[in-house]
Amino acid sequence: MKKILVFAFLVFAFSCKKNQSPVSIETNLVCVAGYEKNGNTRIAKYWKNGQAVNLSNGIYDAEANGIAISDTNVYVCGDSSDKVGNTQAVYWNNAKPMSLGSDGRSLSMAEKMLLVGNDIYVVGSELGTYSFWATFWKNGQIFHPADTIYSSMGRGLAYANNQLYIVGYLSDSNPSTGVIWQNGQAYHLGDDNSVNTYSIASAGNDIYVAGTSFYSVDVFTYWENGQPVNLGDLNLSVWSLEPCFIAVSGTDVYIAGMEYKIPPTINTPIVEIAMYWKNSQPYYLTDGKHDAHVTGIKVFGNDVYISGYESNGTKYVAKYWKNGQAVNLSDGKNDAYAKDIAVIHK
Fold this sequence. Notes:
Largest sheet: 4 strands, antiparallel
Strand content: over 45%
Structural class: mainly beta
Radius of gyration: 22 Å
Helix content: under 10%
Distance between the termini: 51 Å
Shape: globular
């Protein structure tokens, strides 16, 4: 009788263990850049496997927009304001602020960053004489890839073929449109203002750019070596929203962004839905009950990481999604925003 009872207990214990939900354990080092509001002040920070590291003291506004990791070093770029409201591009090395070249008077902003060997590249914009100029910094030294007589903005950067590629926006003698700069030469990805570009990635010798193209609606588009590929059905009921972000792994192309459906009545609120595409297949990260935004994407091994933020009904919660599963970074008491993500092995 005892043997029967012991056997029954073991079967019961095994079946309970088998039916338990698996616990997700993060095996990689995941760092997310962003900022959190404290009253009316923005505090730049990053989260290292969920633990917040403040980059600014909360006296003046600061934001963290881009992030990169090398070994044990975490690099974050963004911008910081002073007591008179001047905003300057900055980057932090392990939470220590580092200067970026500027005249100290112009408004400047840093958007994304890239590590290539021992070189640190940051891309953004600087306010010139009459308009913003696309700007990048190499190891703190400032450069303008575009002709400074036109308005332009730098939004992303990649490195391939021993060359730096910058993607962004340019308003020149042609209508404003999305462009790539290569060695100071601008290459238009559209012949009119129907194209907007935000993100760039390299895979081997190939260059991929993510943005939107306007037909009857805006639709997600990526360009492989300048050739466009549209995602979506070009109908009037679904809009693809800017910005959008790209990652490439092998032959797979991932585009992360937001969509919304045209509301049935003018009084129906528009809700932005976070989602991504893997090649031609869409995957939705949120259910459309609350606004959600994506801000970056990284593919690491078999895992897809997407940074962003989602409303809880009253505040925005900074978070990232790993393979579609949300990981909250803030507690929802203050507005918080995740702006970019980087992943390496621990």
